[in-house]
TrEMBL record:
CC cofactor note: Binds 1 zinc ion per subunit.
Protein name: D-alanyl-D-alanine dipeptidase
Species of provenance: Roseospira visakhapatnamensis
Top-level EC class: hydrolase
Gene name tied to this protein: ddpX
Enzyme active site: 158 (proton donor/acceptor)
Family: Belongs to the peptidase M15D family.
Ligand binding (Zn(2+)): 93, 100, 161
Reported function: Catalyzes hydrolysis of the D-alanyl-D-alanine dipeptide.
EC number annotated for this UniProt entry: 3.4.13.22
Pfam families, alphabetized: Peptidase_M15
């Protein structure tokens, strides 16, 4: 059902924030660092990789499929529907139809300056925000161009978030068990 996204299979960098404590909850959410997308999203990711490559860039994935259980953990830490989808409604991430990512230099692996970090909940994270450096604005525009040319939709409040068009009603919300991804820690 879901496609595993690996550096070898998609020529991407993986830095999955929710497999570390470096996220808005302050602790790891996932038991392991693995990346999955619905096959439709994986196809578009492949297109985006192909568009970034001739520019000397690679995509660094920060999050992709997020089991419904993980969405609840984020909601408990930050119940702000502007930045965290209410798990009762479902997140495109929990449908394996969204990806959070940035651009890195293909040679050095250095991330491009995007003006804010991932999961920064301030207005400076919005596309088009002009309170960030001109370089960061250009980098965001470059990421937006790569991703939209590849066929992705974008979310105005988060420069890092891209999703399939109209995922609600098209893709089901999946639990870790239903997806068979084994991302969530075993219950004690």
């Amino acid at each position: 059902m879901l496609t595993e996204i690996t550096p070898e299979s998609y020529d991407v960098d993986l830095h999955l924030a929710y497999a570390t404590a470096d996220n808005i909850t302050g602790r790891p959410i996932y038991a392991r660092s693995a990346c999955y997308l619905h096959a439709d999203a994986a196809t578009l990711l492949g297109r985006a990789v192909g568009l970034a490559r001739p520019l000397g860039l690679r995509l660094r994935i920060l999050d992709a499929f997020r089991p419904a259980e993980a969405q609840w953990k984020l909601w408990e830490a930050q119940p702000n529907p502007t930045f965290v989808a209410d798990p009762r409604r479902g997140s495109p991430h929990s449908m394996a139809a969204a990806v959070d990512l940035t651009l890195v230099d293909a040679v050095t692996g250095t991330p491009l300056d995007m003006g804010t970090g991932f999961d920064d909940l301030r207005p400076e994270s919005e596309h088009g925000n002009q309170d960030i450096s001109p370089d960061a604005q250009r980098h965001r525009a470059l990421l937006l161009g790569v991703m939209t040319t590849a066929g992705w939709d974008w979310y105005v409040k988060e420069w890092w978030h891209y999703q399939l068009f109209k995922p609600r009603g098209t893709y089901p919300v999946l639990t870790d068990r239903a997806a068979g991804t084994h991302l969530m820690p075993e219950a004690a």
